[in-house]
Amino acid sequence: MPGRSSTNLNGTTIGLLRSKSGCKTCKIRRVKCGEEKPHCVRCTSTGRKCDYDDRKSSKFSIVPSTQPILANSLSMSPNTMWRERRAFAYYFQNAASAVGGGLDVDFWRTIVPQLCRSEPAVWDAIISVSALFESPEPISDPDRIQNHRDALGWYSRSVSAVRQQIERGSVDTFVGLISCVLFICIEALQGGVDEAIQLYCQGVHLILALRTQIASGLVPAAKATLLEDTIVPIFIRLGLIGFTFSRPQIGLLLRGIKRRPTHIFVSLRAAREEITRLGAEIQFFQHACGEHLLSPDEPRIPQDLLDLQADLSVQLRDWDTAFVNLVESLRTTSLPSEDVGTISLLSAIYETLFIMLEVSASSSEVITDAFLPNFQRIVEQCRISLDASLRADGTQPPFTFDINPGVALWFTCLRCRDPIIRREALALMLRSPRVQGFYSCMSAVTFGERIMLLEEMNGEVMSTNPETTHFSTTESLVGYQYSPRSSSSLSPESTGSDAGTPLIHPIPEEARIGHFDVFQPERGLPPDITEEVMARWNLRPDRTFLGFWRNERDEGSDTWRMVREYIPMDLKY
Predict the structure, then answer these.
(1) Could you give the residue ranges of the DSSP H alpha helices within 65-192?
(2) Phi and psi (nearest 5°) for 563?
(3) How far apart, in whole angstroms, are the C-alpha atoms of residue 77 and residue 73?
(4) What is the pLDDT of residue 551?
(5) Which of 52-66, 137-151, 245-259 has the largest mean confidence?
(6) How far apart are CA 188 and CA 182, in angstroms?
């Protein structure tokens, strides 16, 4: 999802921590470099030459901030100290437990606040998170406008303090990492997706630097434990939400994690950390399968991947057995609502990974129809989890930094073709926190609904006209009267009335799409784009396009092949 730069109320851009260690080719192309050595993935995957600067430089720099005027006005405004203390109190009482979830409340409510006693930059970042959490979007309410103005001023001051420490060479790597975590929250709350992603990658570099220091005995044992037991898992869970860009970083983080026996879990937190590790491994497996299935040569899953699938299946089954035993032991006493929500969330994540692992080795999209009971359980468990996370006023927190129901619901929206279950998943996403990890939930709902309607419209055309097997773009469907479902209502309660009747026919294989990527030509093209493709699909630089793969049957040979197609995302469906 395309992000935007974070701006203050006057439209000026807040300076960010920037990595200067990307390759020269990516710098010239003005695209994000994965910084893999000796050659980055972005360059090698597109056949470009990849070189790094030989000169040694400071690992991090900060783009000169345009915020000193705002910071000065903040310091001269009335009741500044009162507003700062109020923001800290709001963070402690309301935001801390919601941002990272109940299982990490000690980190967000104890460790981070303790650090801000000696680190003004951390204090400013905390109260900025608090102000944005309380008023995520500036509206006409004067108090909320002031909260937003304060948040931007405090963020600017925090960035400036970190920048000065870097320039003096006095920045503590551990403090820099905590600041980076808070900066990611601030950028995500403002919709700065690109900036949050860049900060995430920088945070991983800081983790690797700390691991090197730990190996040399330069870091106290307490900090080393905090890093591996709390901060690294936070980054892995956050990376699962943005796996498309974070894959190299998660791979680096997993190298330092030892696989733990899963025969028994002593806590929900232990169960969560193991399902997170498994989730990363299964997503790596899915990605590897996709590369083989989309290969221009004959698509075939090699035996080593099939062996890995079997091994991961055993690990996932062991996790489920240990998790069920843990839940049974916990339910011998009355469980708080928070734990009920966590149990339901982990159950939904398990079902998601189970389906993902089973279907990844197949190029067929119809294969997911065998898992409709699993998709239904995902929806049911996510509903319970979302009910448990409601605040006193009946609303969800505006932001969550942790793995959340949105991950499982998003997978369901894309891979489940049952019209009722799919719409229930979309409706629950509308009830989810406004920002999850890096992304806007509303953007995900809009994208998921477009994919659903595109498949259903083509599916109806193909089902009612058996001789039609060609996939139609939205441009060729203009004027077609689509009736089985209404896109105007995503409420599960309305699926039997104003939302129309369920689809009569299942969506055929040819109408199902997958392996998506969204891109704008002016921001960079997928590696398989050629000039011929550009001309054929009229890929104008300023438009947003959806690229996808689907199965197409050759009637003459009665065989299937994967085909690549593109559709403008800005058309009305």
Answers:
(1) 68-76, 80-90, 96-99, 105-106, 112-115, 120-134, 142-168, 173-190
(2) -125, 150
(3) 6
(4) 86
(5) 245-259
(6) 10
| Rounded-to-integer distance, Cα 340 and Cα 346, Å | 10
Query: Using CB atoms within 10 A of its CB, is residue 183 exposed (0-12), middle (13-18) or buried (19+)?
Result: buried
- pLDDT, the chain, mean: 81
Burial 290-320 (b: 16+ CB within 10 A, else e): eebbeeeeeeebeeebeebbeebeebbeebb
What 212-220 contacts at long range (C-beta under 8 Å, 24+ apart), as own/partner pairs, is 213/173, 219/174
- Assigned CATH class of 18-57: few secondary structures
Angle, to 10 degrees, between the axis of helix 419-430 and the axis of helix 441-464?
160
Tokens of 416: 């489940």
Strand order in the sheet with 435-436: 399-400, 435-436, 439-440
Closest CA to 546 of 511, 572, 514, 522: 514
The whole-number pLDDT of residue 15 equals 37
* Mean pLDDT of the region 50-76: 46
The Cα 388–Cα 543 span in angstroms is: 40
Left (φ > 0), alpha (ψ -120 to 50) or beta: where does 265 sit?
beta
Q: What is the pLDDT of residues 153-194, one digit of tens each?
A: 999 999 999 988 888 888 889 999 999 999 999 999 988 888
* Predicted local distance difference test score (pLDDT) of residue 553: 78
Instruction: Enter the DSSP assignment of 7.
Output: B
pTM attached to this predicted model: 0.81
Count of residues making up the chain: 573
Domain map (residue ranges) of the chain: 18-57, 64-254, 268-568
Residue 525 has what DSSP assignment? -
Rg (the chain; Cα; Å): 24
Please indicate whether residue 568 or residue 344 has the higher confidence score (pLDDT).
344
Could you tell me how many helices (H) and strands (E) the chain has, helices first?
22, 8
Taking the C-alpha atoms of residue 512 and residue 549, their distance in angstroms, rounded to an integer, is 9
Residue 200: Cβ-neighbour burial (10 angstroms; 0-12, 13-18, 19+): buried
> Which residues, in sequence order, are CB contacts of 485 under 8 Å at separation 6+?
419, 423, 456, 499, 500, 501, 502, 503
Higher pLDDT, 47 or 345: 345
| Residue-wise DSSP of 56-69 | ---SEEEPPPS-HH
